[in-house]
Design brief:
Blueprint lengths: L9 H27 L15 H4 L7 E2 L1 H5 L22 H4 L13 E2 L1 H4 L11 E2 L26 E2 L1 H4 L3 H4 L4 E2 L21 H4 L3 E2 L1 H4 L11 E2 L9 H4 L13 E2 L1 H4 L11 E2 L28 E2 L1 H4 L11 E2 L11 H4 L11 E2 L1 H4 L11 E2 L11 H4 L11 E2 L1 H4 L11 E2 L37 H5 L39 H4 L4 E2 L12 H5 L10
Antiparallel strand pairs: 1-3, 2-5, 4-7, 6-9, 8-11, 10-13, 12-15, 14-16
């Protein structure tokens, strides 16, 4: 019996044929992809071709070009046919490579020089290589074939450079955004390794940091200075900051020593001016806090408020102690009162030596005095006139300023008031009763004598007179002092305001008050 043969229509057979061809094409494609990823010791079809009899070494590298695995005719004409392109390539290398590689990936705005000139084989071996990506050699040695090795091998080397990770920062072929072929723009590129929070999280940020100008201070490859700085900090900062503001006759040690970062943070800070700490804490890193602040006594207000720069320049000055102005103009910036406007000034005040009496930072005495009164006054005034047997009470208590102004007054001897007025606050009773009592009659003058016109003449000491508001007694004001030429008569005509060896602080030698009268009334007899 004959078996029946089923005849498949031609149209159906054609469909099956194309289906089989599709399957075969996919299998071949998968095989080719597998072959491209094969290591060098895998036996590629090209090695079976006659070319390998002479050029076997071309396929011995660790990484083999996929085109090599497809056979030499992929790139070369056969057999050694020369069409004017060496070495027997089917076309120029720059064109030939784009037969497999997408040209758009290499047509960026900024191109690596070998790419721009079509010299692919300057970096890549077209057959096989011991380096990844078919590179002619490992990085960074490959880069040094064009780029001077000295630029990358100074004393301090950036970690990516030291590790040969050139392509971590640079695109090897081209970039649309960066002329340096950077993989990202600055500062984002730097933040791939450096913590962004350490540069952009504080209140005050250094301008180069916030604008991404990292390389204005740091060399991205290598340098002979610490932290890859392009220059020593003593000169680096002057690339932006005017050196004239940082030099002077008297310079702050950190400024003159180029130690800018001892006071300033180079990237960011919570304090103004990028200071490492707020003032005065920053200053106390070098200056002893105990010499600036007092637990008892007085502390200068700018010190209390941490306003060191109110008196001192921070970098340099033409004045000692780095003062912003000469004394007393510096002090007048805060201390301008009526107390300074008198006609007569204290000697140190007149010549502007405020620190002759006051310390600028702290003192154990009130008003920042360098010494307690009266010891301070005795540093200029002879102590001899103040330490006799009997001492005026304000002097004994060190209250010089009870009678004298300490800066300026309108009266001689820097008195706080003129004439006897300075004595009245303490000796009010003296001005309400006869003084002195001894030696003066108690009876009133006769009425007719009072009413009798008196000729105009100069009264002499000893005349009885009436001063408004007090009873009869010795004249105490309004006459010339016969013993002290050019001065008016007053309390200090008879009494020494500081100290005396006589009773009642009498100015002249006397064991009893009436003996004083003989100094002026030589022709009179006193009982």
């Amino acid at each position: 019996m004959h078996q029946s043969v089923k005849i498949i229509p031609m149209s159906a057979r054609s469909g099956i044929f194309f289906l089989n061809m599709t399957v075969i094409f996919l299998l071949v494609s998968a095989f080719v992809s597998l072959v491209f990823s094969l290591p060098a010791d895998a036996a590629p079809p090209a090695q079976e071709q006659p070319c390998m009899k002479c050029h076997a070494a071309l396929s011995k590298g660790k990484v083999v070009h996929a085109a090599m695995l497809q056979g030499c005719p992929t790139c070369h004409v056969q057999p050694h046919e020369n069409r004017g392109v060496k070495p027997s390539l089917k076309s120029e290398a720059s064109v030939l490579c784009y037969g497999c590689h997408d040209k758009t990936k290499y047509g960026k705005r900024y191109k690596h020089s070998p790419v721009a000139s079509g010299r692919c084989t300057a970096c890549h071996n077209p057959h096989s290589s011991g380096s990844e990506k078919l590179l002619q050699s490992d990085m960074p040695s490959l880069c040094y074939t064009c780029h001077s090795k000295g630029i990358f091998t100074k004393k301090v080397v950036h970690s990516p450079v030291m590790s040969g990770m050139c392509t971590f920062c640079h695109e090897p072929h081209g970039s649309d955004t960066n002329s340096k072929l950077l993989t990202s723009n600055l500062p984002d590129l730097c933040f791939k390794c450096h913590d962004k929070g350490g540069f952009l999280s504080a209140r005050i940020i250094h301008t180069p940091v916030i604008t991404g100008l990292c390389t204005s201070c740091h060399n991205p490859h290598s340098e002979d200075t610490k932290r890859l700085l392009i220059a020593e900090s003593s000169t680096l900062c002057f690339n932006c900051h005017d050196q004239k503001n940082l030099v002077g006759k008297v310079a702050h040690v950190p400024a003159s020593g180029g130690m800018c970062t001892s006071c300033h943070e180079p990237h960011q800070s919570v304090a103004d001016k990028l200071l490492r700490a707020p003032v005065p804490e920053l200053c106390y890193k070098c200056h002893d806090r105990e010499t600036m602040t007092a637990e008892s006594g007085s502390t200068h207000l700018p010190v209390v408020k941490g306003q060191c720069a109110a008196c001192h320049k921070t970098h340099a000055s033409k004045i000692k102690k780095m003062l912003v102005k000469y004394q007393p103009n510096l002090c007048y910036g805060c201390h301008v009162t009526e107390e300074f406007r008198g006609k007569r000034g204290h000697g140190p005040f007149r010549i502007g030596t405020c620190n002759a009496c006051h310390t600028p930072h702290k003192s154990t005495n009130d008003h920042l005095l360098t010494q307690a009164v009266p010891a301070l006054c005795f540093s200029c005034h002879s102590e001899e006139g103040f330490v006799k047997e009997r001492v005026h009470q304000p002097v004994a208590e060190g209250k010089c300023f009870a009678c004298h102004g300490n800066h300026t007054t309108s009266y001689g001897n820097l008195m706080k008031a003129g004439g006897n007025s300075v004595c009245k606050p303490c000796h009010e009773a003296i001005f309400q009763n006869p003084h002195p009592k001894a030696g003066f009659p108690e009876a009133e003058q006769k009425t007719e004598e009072k009413e009798k016109p008196q000729p105009q003449k100069k009264k002499i000491l000893g005349d009885l007179f009436e001063e408004p508001g007090r009873k009869k007694g010795h004249i105490m004001v309004g006459k010339e002092d016969p013993k002290r030429y050019g001065r008016n008569f007053g309390c200090i005509s008879c009494h020494d305001p500081h100290s005396s060896d006589s009773i009642s602080l009498i100015r002249y030698p006397a064991s009893r008050p009436l003996e004083l009268c003989k100094e002026c009334h030589k022709n009179r007899t006193f009982q």
